[in-house]
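So, could you explain the following?
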Amino acid sequence: MRLRDSIGRTINYLRLSVTDRCNLRCSYCMPEDGIGKHAHGDILSYEELYKIACVAVSIGIDKIRITGGEPLVRKGIIGFLHQLSEIPRLKQLVLTTNGVLLEKMALDLRAAGVQRLNISLDSLDPQTFAQISRCGDLTSVLAGIEMAKSCGFPIKLNMVVMRGINDHEILDFATLATTSATTVRFIEYMPAIREQNWQRYVVPGSEILERLAQHFTLIPVEQAEMSGPARNFRIPGAPGSVGVITPVSHHFCSECNRIRVTATGLAKGCLFDESQLDLRAALRSGSSVQLAHVLNALVNSKPVRHQMNPDECHHQAFSMASIGG
């Protein structure tokens, strides 16, 4: 079954947030004074999240990524992931994490049926890492990554590149792909929180690739059917690969294959579009047909593209943690 939107894009990928809570306070994700957290009763139950997943798969979604906030801080996450992994016709169950809790949870995640991990890691320097995350300990994240590798997880590291803050580490990150089977993806800084003069942080993907090409031969890799928006490259002789994600300088909206649902049950067709549909009434009606109808409506109303470019953005400020990144 193919799920297509109004302009013919195949939509096969659901980003499902299970919490708006996080154990880091990354500078590009939320303002320095933090965000107001939702009350416990505002967050969807695991039963409701599972129903969304099942209905989404029934209409054509075959890849689900679990996000947060930080998904591993929610109690009971392992049992929920195990349930998801047993949904018939779901081809991929993957999870994005900041890695803080991975050392003690990686083995359970593997046993629960999670197939791959994307780990957000913005610096290999303890001081820079602490500056960006505002409260993080790099040692615990690196230990978590090693544990995940030992459990057999394919590893993707996502680095948000910020000029003047961590862009001097681009080559250090790329080198990780030459020494292990790690996929390293460089993501342009996005103005989610609308910080003043946000443009100063953006290092365009073209510049990132130019820097890499001065040291490595980059061979384009063909895009997989259920992959995300990265343009990926292999380095001859390297066990890993590198990629760039360019939402600001070179949007990939024409190839976008995703929808997302927040932990409070709001469904969005685009991260930077302010329109959203509330799934809670359909969920609490008990009708899978009604829920499927709302999800189909979301797909049909998916914007052609976001309204953001290197010079300006038009969305209201939001926290990535509140939407699921």
